[in-house]
């Protein structure tokens, strides 16, 4: 399940950036114009987001969009 691992690692990366910025899921959702449950789904690896939502998240987190995609595919995310 490479896809599931990728989504999980991406979600963990988004969460790390969000926490580093000091934002709650609710704050990030409001800044990005997305629903909090959508943010939660991303962070849990349950959402395969669109390019436009990636750009919204990048703007809300005040980082370049490419930084959101710069995560280690070999990282141990605790899943098998």
TrEMBL record:
Residues 14-68 form the HTH cro/C1-type domain. SMART domains: HTH_XRE (SM00530). InterPro entries: Cro/C1-type_HTH, Lambda_DNA-bd_dom_sf, TransReg_Diox_bact_type. Coiled coil: none annotated. Keywords: DNA-binding, Transcription, Transcription regulation. Signal peptide: none annotated. This is Helix-turn-helix transcriptional regulator. It comes from Anabaena azotica FACHB-119.
């Amino acid at each position: 399940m490479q896809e599931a691992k990728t989504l999980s690692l991406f979600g963990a990366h988004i969460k790390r950036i969000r926490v580093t910025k000091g934002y709650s899921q609710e704050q990030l959702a409001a800044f990005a114009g997305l629903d909090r449950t959508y943010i939660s789904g991303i962070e849990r690896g349950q959402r395969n987001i669109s390019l436009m939502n990636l750009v919204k998240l990048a703007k809300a987190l005040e980082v370049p969009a490419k930084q959101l995609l710069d995560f280690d595919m070999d990282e141990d995310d605790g899943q098998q």
